[in-house]
Each structure stands twice: as C-alpha cells, then as structure tokens.
Design brief:
The complex is a heterotrimer. By secondary structure, chain A is mostly helical. Chain A has helices at 21-44, 47-73, 80-97, 102-121, 129-150, 181-204, 206-216, 218-223, 228-254, 265-277, 282-301, 307-322, 328-357. A 7-stranded mixed sheet of chain C has the order 8-7-9-10-11-12-13, with helices on both faces. In chain C, strands 1, 2, 3 and 4 form a 4-stranded mixed sheet that branches. A two-stranded parallel sheet of chain C has the order 5-6. Classes of the chains: A mainly alpha, B mainly alpha, C alpha/beta. Chains B and C meet through helix 1, helix 2, helix 3, helix 4 and strand 2 of B and helix 1, strand 8, helix 8 and helix 9 of C.
C-alpha cells in the first residue's frame, strides 16, 4: 500500500542508554552540525540567505510531517499544504488576539491545527491509497476557497481579524528574544529541532511500531492487536501538529500572510519535494525543505527561470517512483559512491596507461 | 434571493459548465478503467496541445484546421509515449503510485509551458464559439454544445466499446488483473497502447474545447483536473456514465449558487464538497475503498 | 537483474525528459525565430514612429563606461501573472541611456528580482537588493504584495521608490510614488465614466487579490455621494465559469445599470467574451479599470464591444504621436523587440525616464543617498504619457497620477473616448492628495 518498500531498518526502542557506538558518533556529528548552523552560520549569511534559510527550516518541518505519513504509515495526503495555511491562519489570529508568549502561541497553534488537520485526515479511516490522496486534495481545494473568502488576520477586528487600508498593517509579532532576522532564524531552527525530536520519539517508540505494522498489512496489524483507527488518527494528528507549529513560525517570519501564497497546486509540489527528498529518513525532510525553498533561490541567483524547477520536480517524481523509492538522501550518496568508484577506476586505468607510457 | 425567472439562465450555464467537468472527468475515467492509471496530466497535455495550436495559428501563420489537428495529435502522441515508456515498469504498482507518476508528467509539461508561453495573455477562438442560439434568455454557443455532445459521445462510445468489442473486453480484463489477462493470450501491450492513444486524443480535443470554455492558460487548464476529479470521484472512478452525470450535477450546483450573492464566493467549493460527501457516503458501513482498480 | 532494471528505468526517464525538453526547445526556437525576423504583430508601429522623439538621457551617442550605478526592481512572476515586462522595459531604457552618455558618463545597471506572491520571497528580494547588491535606488518594481511587505524596510533604510503599484501600500505610504494611480482610483475613474453615462445602479466585479475591500472603497464612496445603489463582488481567479459570472453581474446591475470590471486582461477578457457570446453588451453599461487598456483585449473582442466599454486609462494610448511615446516605441523596437506595446511597458519606460532625469541632476557623487534624495525631489515631471506632471516630494501618501482618460475598443484597437478628467474627490485619499498638491503648488487643473 505504501509508495514503495521501505528499507528495512528495525531498531530497538529509543533511549540514550541503548545507543550503540555508531549511533553515538552520529549523535555527536548531528549536535556539532546543529551548533554550526545555530552559531556560525547566521553571522556569515547575508540578510537574503538568512531569510531563505529560515524558510528552509520551516518547510523541513512541513515536509517531515508529510514524509512520516507517507513513509511510516503509508498514508498519502495531498492536503498538507492547506493544513499549513490553516496553521498560519491560526497562528496569526492568536498573535493578534492574545498577548501570550510566542512559544505558547506556537503550542496552541499546533494543538488547534492538530484538531483541524485530523478532521482532514478523518476519511483515512475509511479510504486508503488513491482515494485518500484524492479526497485530501478535494478538502485542500475547499479550504483554499474558504481562505480566499476570509483572508488572513492582519490586526483587524472580529473573528476573522482582517482589515484593509493603504498605510500598512501591524505585523504578526515575533518572540521578544528573536526580533531580528538572524535571531528568528535560530528560533526557527530550534523549533524545528524540537519537532524533529518529537517525531523521532514517535517513530522509535510504540506508535512507530504500530505504524510499521499498519504499513505492512492492515489485516495483519489488526490481528496483532494494533488499534488501527487510533494510530492512523495519531499519525494525522502528529503531522498536523507539526505542520501547524510550522505555520505559526511562518506567520511570524514575514509578519504578513496572503491567500495567494497557498495555492492548491502547492499541495502537489509539496508531495513532489517530499518524495524526492525521501520519506524514510528524517534527513529526507531537510532535503525536501531545501528543494522547496533553497533551490528556487539558487536558480534565481544563477539567473535560471523558475519554470525549470517545475520541470525538475516533475522529473524527480518519476525518478523517485521508478528507481529510487527512498529519495535523494539514499540515492545521492550511492550515486556519489558509484561516481567516485568510476572516477577512481578511470584514474587507475589512466595511471596504469600513463605508467606504461612513461 | 433571486427569483425563479432569474435562476433559469443559470441552468443553461450550469449545464455548459457541467460539460466542462464531464469532459475531463470522462477522459480520465476512460483511461483508468482500461489501464488502471488515473492520468492527472490530462489537463496539462490538452493545454500544451492548445498552446501549440495557438502558436501555429498566430506565430507560424498556419490555417486553423491543421493547427487543431496538431493539437489533438499532440495529445495522442505524448500520452501514448508516456504510456509506452512508463506504463510497463509501473504496471504492477499501486494505483496511487501510477497516478502520482502522472503528476510528474503534469509538472514537466506545466514547467515547459510556462517557460515557453510565460507571461502574456492569449486567446484562441474556435469558429464554433462565435455562433450561438437562444435558449430562454440565454445565448448558447456551439462550443458549449460541442463540449456536452463530445462528453456524451465519448461516454456512450466507451460503454459500447468496453461491452461489445473484443479489445474492450480485453481492456476490462486488463484493468482487473494484468497477469491473468496476459496469461489468457491477450496482447497486453498493444491493448494498453491503444487505450493510452485514445485517451490522449480525447485530452487533445478536450484541451481545444476547454481553452475556449475556460481560457487558454497553462496553469488554469493543468489544475482544472482538480475540479474535474470531483465528478470522477463521485463515480468512484469506475462508471463513465455516472461521471458524466456527476459532471452535470456539479456544474449545476456551482452555477445555481452563483446568483445568490451571499454564498456566491463559496460556490467553487461545490465540486470538492460534493465529491467528499459522495466518497464518504459510498464508503459507509465500514467498507473500505482501497486504491486498487475495481 | 535488478540493477539492469534500474538502469533501464533511468534511461527511460532521461530519454523522456530529454524528449519533453527537446520538444519545448523546438517550439521555443520556432517562436524565437519569428520574433527575431520582422517582429510580427508585437511591434507594429503604425507608421508613426519617431517624427519627434525625446532623447534618452544625455543623448550624445557616446557609450558610458566605468563603475555602473546599480538600481533594483522586484516584480511578480508566477503562472498567470507576469510583471517582469515592466522592469525589462526600464532596463531597455537604461541601455539606451548607457549608449548615450549614461549618467554623466557612468552606466546604469538594473538588477531584477522576481517573487511569486510569496511575502518571504518579496522580503528576501528587497534585502538582497539593498544589503547584498547595495543598489543606489529602487526603480521599476511592480508586485501584487511587494509594497505591503517592504514599505517599512524602505522607510527604515531611506529608499524612495519610483515604481508602479497594485497593493494599497504603494499609494498610502511615504516612500513610494507610483507612476500609475492603482486599482482603487482607476476603478473610481471607470465608475465616473458610468455615472456620466447615466446608470441607475453600479456593480463592481473584481479579482480577489490582497486589498479587494480597499479597492472597492473609492467606488462605494463615489456611489454614495451620487446616491446610486451598489453591489461589490469579487471572484477568485482563474474564473472557470465566465458565463455564469457575466450573467450574475448583469442581473445584479439590472436594466439601466452599469458594471465595472477590475481584472487582469485575460480574466477581464473571459467575462467580456462570455457577455458578448450571450448578447449582454447592451443590457448594461460596461466599464473597466486600466488593465483592460491593451490592444490584446481590443483585438480579441473584435467589434463586439466597440464604443460599449469604457476603459479607464492611467497612461496615454500607445498610438499617439508625441515625443516621449515615440521614444518609447523606438526603444522597445531597438532594445526589447519581444516586449509588446501596452501599459506595462509604458510604466517601465516612464519610471526609468524619471529616474534617469533625476540622476542626471545630481551634483557630486552618485550614491545611495544622493540618488534617493534626487528621487524624492522630483516634481513637475511633464510627459505626454500622463495627463498631469509626476512628482515625488515628502508627503504621507503619493498619488501623483490622479487625472486620466477613458478609452474604448474600436475595430481591434483602443481609441480615446474621453479626454483627461480628474478622479473624484468623493474618495478621501484623492481629496487628501489634492489638498497636499494645492498647498505645495503641485496642483495643475485639467487642461492647464
């Protein structure tokens, strides 16, 4: 039922004590990388790249949510981008309506979006595969129509909180410790790390095993006593919570939100980048976030048209579905290894030939 | 609330809009029933065909008829090529994977279209769009009629073909179980190829008609499939006849909400809400609709 | 076996992608060929070119050299909406300036950024222009959201933007002065035309963009002053059921009513074509805000709306024979033959021309401070493309373009229907701007 067979890597329940040597080394590397991203990077990045990097952090979380649904549980949703829009709406609304500290706003945004997103995922109890994907696409399109009519909150009165004038609107506030762009980038990365850890705990824990069972075979999972309804909804709830928090961070990033930035078609693009990044690894989500937000910036800087990106995503979908179900995170190192091997072989041959010639 | 008098013309425009949904819906279901592939690139292929026809007429100075022919052929050839190249390796995969792969094709075509024909507005008017006749208060043009007629013809044709011809029986078998059908000596590849070709030609014709009925714009036509899918979903992607009827129901519901100004802004939800409700209704009593081809 | 299979698939994908891209390039090449040879329909100059044309910059024919003066522009570019023509035309004008002595010898370079109605992209683009590229000024920006997202940033950094706009903040904030008047006031202008035509009810139908309610403000204020009942409606583009929409607005307006459309050309065309196909041209009076002022629309409508559609025109018709318009046509032909004549390219031309004139007047070093000071001090910039002179100056809001024309389609092209008239002061922002103009001595009455 899943998009492709997952690489089999069963692990024991996650706890620091049980980390083997390889994992401990990996953990050290990750922490080092994280420190680099948090402290070395912002000082070296221009304002432009700081903004781009913040977006990558936000969309990595969105990608992780969808990636987990697809890779761990075998549920394909084409409505996660609309859930992000809901999260951004709720986040902005809470910021204007309350004086709560920003982390509280994010938590509440996550919880409210979790409820809404689980509603979107509710059909998953009855439908699966293609029908689930299509019905979530239908719901996403419907959400877009509603948002078009309501607009995003921007400091206005009433429930919708939307007002229009020509002298500018108040912005969604940022946390007081992260008013500047570099500080907000750090904030977004830390939020992302926390959400990644929550996801990891789930995957390594009991829910992860239940999801794996459901993905393999629902009847077998049922026979093994897995509560399918509970765990399917749990997956949607978790993905929606993460996406909702990401929406809250997105609302604070620029401070203004527009319906036009959440077209229905982006649900499809999101699926493309998530598949390309890889749905079986947490790293895949970061690759997907980069594909979604970093690659367009790079293309723009190289003077290439953004349309190439659309073509690339199209080719990427086909490539992933046909040859590399685990996505770029698995494929790229393998390709590099193969390329390296080929180059080495070539060099050796040339060296031998050269040795003979001399 | 508008009076009954005022509602009347919207029945006509609703049927015309229903024709639009039915046209793409039927085109997609035909291929799904015969190959088990939901072609989400249906709109993109037609859009590119129509844009090439526009290019031929306006930039290369072609006569209109050969340009339209090229549009239809383009649809057939691209869809057939896709089917020949990607059909076999994906044949044993889940319908969801097959459908997702066609999204890849849709994105490739959309990217190419916005690269080549980015920017400015275009329009291409079929000769049938300029002639019209009166129905009640409303003038109906012949492209609208053509859209509905074409939808009906494709539906009836498909039903008859699947039921009464050898190839049709083979296709039905194929959609059910590729392996067994192949074992029974049906030339699987050839049968599939003809299904791809025909549905491609349909997408070409639909592209021409839709570029007139909805507008000649790559993104609009590409993502029109999302609305048209509603009709197909109400029919559970299996019945061509129900898809056609559902298309008209969706079109009517949308159109009749139009003059009621308080809900007018939300009327475009009609296809999605109807499809969601229909799917949930069809899957009630604990039945699970799986993604496998029926 | 499995490796072979994988390789097979890879080859398939590569082959298919190559095929698709090859096809795309083939079509593009054919198209490009046509543009190169003869220019086709796009640059039809109607035999009126350049009898008396203005000069670009110094007009001395000497190529500029040395370190370029960097300017920046941000435009919306996404499927269905593309404003890059505006910056490209500005760039074409700067090329002409660079071939004619530059800014006192130094060439101008225009760095162009795009955004896809994504606030994060728009904000990042502004930061890139100002902090990475260190541009001296912002000229030629047009975006659906850019003014809203970036106006505070420009204010904080002392940039005065000569652009064209859509978002409300392009007209209501101190650091923007657009060459156009924007949708709100263009809709008001179109409404004034309908009132002069004696309509009994007014219906506004517009595209759902950021600021839809704001745009309707002028329309509602004017109708209220005149005591005419109204209905204000919006449609999310792209319109899929133009027939129903056309019927809806005609019913809402009723007999003797008038309809104002505010859409991009292709969307407006859908509604107008649907109206024509249903024979609704004469049921109500039709009017349109400025985007309809393009020969593309007139051409596509044929003769169905001849003299039946009043289009508010913020800039002069491209067909007039006047110095600046002639220079504009010459420059497009020489430096950017692919860009069609029309409001968008006129915006870009005018913005670049105003900026060049301002920069030529700088005494001493040309840098960010002097350029923005020069931009801010522009006033009384006369051109045949506008009804009254353009100005910037220090003010809480800028709508220097507040007097314009009405045009109408006639056998495939746009022709003038009404001469310059003032946008109604029934709308508060216009009243405010006129008061400022009168106080500062910038006010020029129509015909004056």
């Amino acid at each position: 039922m899943s998009v492709a067979e997952a690489p089999r890597r069963e692990r024991a329940a996650w706890s620091p004590a049980r980390l083997d040597r390889g994992e401990r080394i990996r953990a050290v590397i990750i922490v080092a990388l994280l420190l680099l991203v948090l402290f070395a990077l912002p000082a070296r990045m221009s304002a432009y790249w700081t903004n781009v990097a913040t977006q990558v952090a936000i969309f990595s979380v969105v990608s992780l949510g969808l990636g987990m649904l697809i890779g761990r549980v075998g549920l394909v949703s084409l409505g996660q981008y609309a859930v992000l829009a809901l999260g951004a709406w709720v986040g902005a609304r809470l910021c204007f309506a309350t004086g709560l500290p920003f982390p509280m706003v994010l938590l509440l945004t996550g919880l409210i979006t979790m409820v809404l997103g689980t509603l979107v995922g509710l059909p998953a109890l009855r439908l699966s595969g293609l029908y689930l994907a299509l019905i979530t696409l239908m719901l996403a399109a419907a959400i877009t129509v509603v948002l078009n009519a309501t607009n995003f909150p921007n400091g206005g009165k009433g429930f919708l909180g939307h007002v229009e004038n020509d002298f500018g609107n108040p912005e969604v506030r940022r946390p007081s410790i992260a008013e500047t762009d570099p500080a907000y980038f750090r904030y977004a990365v830390i939020v992302a790390v926390v959400l990644f850890l929550i996801a990891l705990l789930h995957v390594r824990g009991k829910p992860g095993r239940a999801w794996a069972a459901i993905r393999q075979s629902e009847p077998a999972a049922l026979a093994a006593g897995v509560n399918i309804t509970l765990y399917k909804l749990w997956a949607f709830a978790l993905a929606s919570f993460m996406t909702g928090v990401a929406g809250g961070v997105l609302a604070g990033d620029v401070g203004e939100l527009f319906v036009q930035q959440f077209p229905t078609s982006n649900n499809i693009v999101l699926l493309a980048v998530v598949l390309m990044g890889g749905v079986y690894s947490i790293w895949g989500a970061i690759v997907a976030g980069a594909l979604f937000k970093l690659l367009p910036a790079l293309l723009d800087n190289w003077g290439l048209p953004a349309d190439l990106l659309t073509i690339l995503f199209g080719v990427g979908i086909l490539q992933v579905l046909l040859t590399a179900p685990a996505g770029l995170v698995y494929q790229f190192p393998r390709d590099m290894k193969r390329l390296g091997g080929a180059l080495l072989g070539l060099a050796r041959r040339v060296g031998i030939a050269g040795g003979r010639a001399s | 609330m508008p009076s009954w008098q005022e509602f009347q013309p919207f029945i006509v425009t609703g049927l015309a809009l229903g024709g639009v949904y039915a046209l793409s819906g039927v085109g997609m279901v035909v291929l799904y029933r015969t190959t088990g592939v939901l072609n989400l690139a249906f709109g993109a292929v037609g859009a590119m065909g129509a844009l090439i026809a526009w290019q031929a007429i306006n930039e290369w100075g072609w006569a209109e008829e050969p340009a339209y022919l090229v549009c239809v052929l383009f649809g057939g050839v691209v869809t057939l090529l896709y089917g020949l190249i990607f059909g076999p390796p994906l044949a044993s995969r889940d319908p969801l994977v097959k459908a997702t792969a066609t999204l890849g094709l849709a994105l490739i075509l959309l990217g190419a279209m916005s690269w080549i024909w980015s920017d400015k507005a275009r329009s291409m008017i079929l000769p049938t769009s300029t002639e019209s006749f009166q129905v009640g208060d409303v003038l109906v043009n012949y492209t609208q009629v053509l859209g509905i007629v074409f939808g009906v013809v494709v539906t009836v044709g498909t039903v008859l073909f699947l039921r009464f011809t050898k190839l049709g029986t083979a296709m039905r078998g194929l959609a059910n179980d590729r392996e067994i059908t192949a074992t029974l000596g049906v030339p699987v590849r050839r049968v599939e190829a003809s299904a791809w070709l025909v549905s491609g030609l349909i997408s070409g014709v639909a592209g021409l008609l839709l570029s007139n009925l909805v507008g000649l714009d790559a993104a609009t036509l590409t993502f029109l499939v999302i609305s048209s899918l509603a009709a197909a979903l109400i029919a559970r992607l299996s019945s061509v006849v129900v898809t056609l009827l559902a298309g008209f129901v969706v079109g009517l519901a949308t159109a009749l909400a139009t003059p009621i100004l308080s809900i007018s802004e939300y009327r475009n939800m009609a296809p999605f809400v109807l499809a969601t409700l229909a799917l949930l209704w069809l899957s009630r009593k604990g039945h699970t609709i799986s993604g496998r081809a029926v | 076996m499995s490796i072979k299979l994988v390789l097979g698939h890879s080859r398939r994908i590569v082959a298919f992608a190559a095929l698709a891209v090859g096809l795309a390039l083939f079509v593009a090449a054919c198209g490009g060929d046509d543009n190169g040879g003869g220019g086709g329909k796009k640059s039809d100059f109607g035999g009126k070119t350049g009898k008396t044309a203005s000069k670009c910059g110094l007009g001395n024919g000497k190529p500029a050299s040395g370190a370029p003066i960097k300017l920046g522009a941000i435009n919306t570019k996404q499927p269905g909406t593309d404003f890059t023509e505006i910056a490209k035309t500005a760039e074409a004008y700067f090329k002409c300036v660079n071939d004619n002595g530059g800014i006192n010898g130094r060439p101008v370079e225009l760095i162009q950024e795009t955004e896809q109605t994504d606030p994060a992209q728009a904000a990042a683009a502004a930061k890139k222009l100002i902090e990475t590229e260190k541009v001296a000024g912002i000229v030629g920006s047009t975006s659906i959201i850019e003014c809203a997202v970036n106006h505070k940033y420009y204010e904080a950094n002392g940039y005065y933007v000569i652009g064209s706009g859509i978002a409300p903040e392009c007209y209501g904030t101190p650091n923007y002065s657009a060459v156009n008047m924007g949708p709100r006031h263009s809709v008001t202008g179109a409404t004034q035309y309908l009132i002069r035509e004696g309509v009994k009810k007014l219906v506004l139908l517009q595209s759902k963009v950021p600021g839809t309610e704001y745009i309707a403000g002028g329309f509602l204020a004017l109708a209220k002053q005149e005591g005419i009942p109204t209905e204000s409606l919006a449609e999310a583009p792209p319109i899929q059921d133009a027939n129903s929409v056309a019927l809806k607005v005609v019913q809402a307006a009723g007999d003797g009513g008038g309809v104002v459309l505010n859409f991009t050309p292709p969307e407006a065309l859908k509604v107008l074509q649907a109206a024509a196909q249903q024979g609704l041209q004469d049921r109500v009076k039709w009017a349109c805000s400025t985007p309809c002022n393009t020969d593309f629309l007139a051409d596509a409508l044929g003769t169905t709306f001849d003299d039946k559609l009043g289009v508010n025109a913020e800039l002069a018709l491209v067909s007039i024979d006047a110095p600046d318009t002639n220079l504009y046509k010459t420059i497009l032909k020489k430096y950017a033959p692919d860009i069609p004549l029309g409001s968008f390219s006129q915006f870009g031309f005018l913005e670049a021309r105003i900026a060049t004139d301002a920069m030529l007047g700088i005494k001493g070093e040309v840098n960010k401070d002097s350029v923005n000071e020069a931009f801010k001090n522009v006033k009384g910039f006369k051109t045949d493309m506008l009804c009254k002179p353009y100005y910037f100056g220090e003010a809480p809001l800028h709508i220097s373009n507040n007097t314009d024309w009405t045009v109408t389609p006639k056998t495939g092209t746009m022709v003038q229907k009404e001469d310059c008239f003032e946008i109604s002061e029934a709308d508060a922002p216009i009243k405010r701007v006129r008061d400022i103009e009168k106080k500062e001595g910038l006010y020029t009455p129509v015909g004056g």
